[in-house]
Amino acid sequence: MRRFVWFLVVVLAIAHWDYWNWNDRGLVAGFLPVGLAYHAAFSVAAGATWALVARFAWPAGIERWASEGDGAGDGRGAAESDEGPANAGGGAET
Amino acid sequence: MLALAATDPTPLYVIGGYLLLLVGLGFVTKALFRGTSSDYFVATRSIGPFLLLMSVFGTTMTAFALVGSTGKAYDLGIGVYGLMASSSAVVHSLVFFLVGMRLWAIGKRHGYVTQIQFFRDRFESSFLGSLLFPILVALVIPYLLIGLLGAGAVMSGVTRGMFPDTFAGGAVPSWLTGMVICGVVLFYIFSAGLRGAAWANAFQTVVFMITGVVAFLLISNELGGLAAASHRVLANAPSHLAREGLIGHGQFLTYGLVPLSVGMFPHLFQHWLTARSARTFRLSIIAHPVFIMIVWVPCILIGIWALGAGIEAPGGNSNAVLGKAVAVLLANPLLSGLLTAGILAAIMSSLDSQFVCLGTMFTHDVVLHRTGPDRFDDAAKVALGRGFIVFIVVLTYLLSLFPPPHIFDLAVWCFSGFASLFPLVFAALYWRRATRAGAIASVCVMAATWSVLFYDGLIRPRAVEGDYLVLGLMPVTFIFLASAATLVVVSLLTAPPSRATVDRFVFRGG
User: Fold this and answer.
1) What was the pLDDT predicted at B304?
2) Among A31, A34, A91, whose Cβ lies nearest the Cβ of B112?
3) Size of interface A-B (CB pairs under 8 A)
4) Which of B87, B185, B241, B468 is the most buried (most CB within 10 A)?
């Protein structure tokens, strides 16, 4: 399912280029230009696709990973900077 | 922009009332402020789904979403929606999902408050932070100026004729509008930092969304209904109902790179860090595309309807079309006041986050980076943050008094610059082989390519009017490709970073 929802995202991205509507001046429901109606529906479809991504392709374990910080929210970390370890990170604010 | 040319002060009362509401909201959020630096800079990472959605949406939608989109549709027709709005519907949520959530997790793991803290540690390079800092600040400041100058233009238009004995043209001057707007925004962010900005953004997002829809319904009613308004376009400006001859295929396709800019907006990074959990992002990821539609579709229709109805852009300035349409079609001072308040809401909901973000960057990436994180206690860090926010607000205000030429054309260039830095953040999160040298080279090449095209597109006189394109493509295409290619090639040619460092920043889960 995960692969399928990402496939839907790719389809969505391709479907954004609606070259077949390029010169269509018709009106949907008597007032909405075809190109605008297509892209308004596209926006709703995007929301629905992202709902599927959030349901089936959610990165499992990210909450736990976020809570496993080496500095426990300290922010100074262990990385060495090219100006020396003392200046690395710099954010012990939380 | 809203050229009523009347002396009825009702719009001013409505706008004044709205600004007072914001000040009142500032008092409320001040009561919610917990007094810690964590609360001031990232709201103690406690913001829930609804507030995150509204604050992020309000921050990404500038005044352009209301005023500029109407003007662009007036010039280029309905294709503007696909060009700028529906592309964002896919790309913004993609970036929130792939980049925003991981940056939130890394920010929580390591206690980061700014992007630069993350990049410095991820690439083990203090120099990279020092290189990025002026670039990010330089790309945000024009964005701030556009907001302030836009607010000044709107207020000047709506108050024209109200003060004939006090101000030139009888209108509230831009310097006074800028001062009041800065004062109000400063009040609520000074009180409660990013928590104050998040609440104010949520409130202002509701205001400008409702205002846009109300203006749309009233204008369509005045034009004889939805069908009559659109049929007038079919009769008088049929080309604007399609894209042929107005927007090229290459331009349309490559414009899709511009929304990647949200991945590198420093103010959005800071909003992401406020999330209570990764799950908090779900609502933003799903609802953001629909919210874009709610705001943009009415504005695009008003733009083409104005053209169909024969409303001329004042002085050839299509950005004034929305105000002109309201003035001509509705001539209602109360509605003009509400619409102006809506436009100011859109402007201020971006300004506040940008002010807080720049103040935070000066505090953490300059002062605390140099002095060490333990040099100041918590209260002193909040005081430093507040001090820098005041500095940024005053600096922006002073710069707005002497606007550079072409300031309103700078927006897409700022966005292109941020978008071209996207390969850097994406590689930092997903590509274990990305190296310090690759990152530095990528930023340098991005800055150089951007500068060359910027000079050619905006500074050097051009024979052709309209959007600046290179081989029919948006300039961001070339800046982005140069930046990405440099990052990949230089990274592959240099020694990889240590596994221990990469493990700290690259999430291996799904």
Assistant:
1) 95
2) A91
3) 248
4) B185
| pLDDT-based confidence at residue B183 (cuts at 50, 70, 90) | very high
B49 is a domain residue:
yes
Reference B296, options B452, B35, B67; nearest CA is: B67
Identify the H or E element spanning B123: none
Nearest of B319, B504, B95 to residue A70 by alpha carbon: B504
What span, in angstroms and rounded, lies between the C-alpha atoms of B225 and B54? 31
User: For residue B3, is pLDDT > 60?
Assistant: no
Q: What is the pLDDT of residues B59-69, one digit of tens each?
A: 888 777 777 88
For residue A36, the chain B residues in CB contact (below 8 A) are 78, 81, 297, 300-301
Question: What CATH number did the domain enclosing B341 receive?
Answer: 1.20.1730.10
User: Cα(B180)–Cα(B98) distance, rounded to whole angstroms?
Assistant: 39
Record the tokens describing residue A10, joined without a space.
Answer: 């790719």
pLDDT tens-digit profile of A33-89?
999 999 999 999 999 999 999 999 999 889 888 988 754 343 443 333 333 333 333
Burial class of residue A80, CB neighbours in 10 A (0-12, 13-18, 19+): middle
Check CB contact under 8 Å for B108 and A67. Answer: yes
What residues of chain B, 457 to 476, have a C-beta less than 8 Å from chain A? none
For the four alpha carbons of B251, B254, B256 and B260, in that order, the dihedral sign comes to negative
Q: Output the 3-class SS for B56-88.
A: HHHHHCCHHHCHHHHHHHHHHCCHHHHHHHHHH
Q: Which of B262, B115, B146 is nearest to A90 (CA)?
A: B115
Q: Which structure tokens are listed for B7? A: 């002396």
What is the total count of domains within chain B? 1
Instruction: Write out the residue range of the structural domain in which residue B285 sits.
Output: 10-402
- Domain assignment present for residue B55? The answer is yes
State the complex-level ipTM.
Answer: 0.90
Which B residues 100-139 touch A at CB under 8 Å? Answer: 101-102, 104-106, 108-114, 117, 120-122, 124-127
**How is residue B173 written in tokens?**
């001057």
Distance from CA of A55 to the nearest CA of B (A): 9
Task: Please compute the mean of the pLDDT values over residues B417-435 and round it to a whole number.
Answer: 96
Instruction: Show the DSSP H helices in chain A as ranges.
Output: 2-15, 34-56, 62-66
DSSP string, B212-270: HHHHHHHHHHHTTSHHHHHHHHHHH-GGGGS-TTTS-HHHHHHGGGGGGGGGT-HHHHH
Is B499 an 8 Å CB contact of chain A?
no
Instruction: State the CB neighbour count (10 A cutoff) for residue B245.
Output: 11
Nearest CA-CA partner of B343 in B177, B117, B131, B163: B177
Q: How far apart are the first and last CA of chain A?
A: 38
In a domain, B20, yes or no: yes
Give the C-alpha separation, B468 to B239, whole Å. Answer: 21
B408, part of any domain: no
3 state DSSP class of B348: helix
Considering only residues 53 to 72 of chain B, which have any Cβ-Cβ distance to chain A shorter than 8 Å? none
Helix (H, G, I), strand (E, B) or coil at B121: helix
Among A36, A65, A76, which would you mutate to test the B interface (most chain B Cβ atoms within 10 Å of its Cβ)? Answer: A36
The single residue listed with the structure tokens 């990274």 is: B491
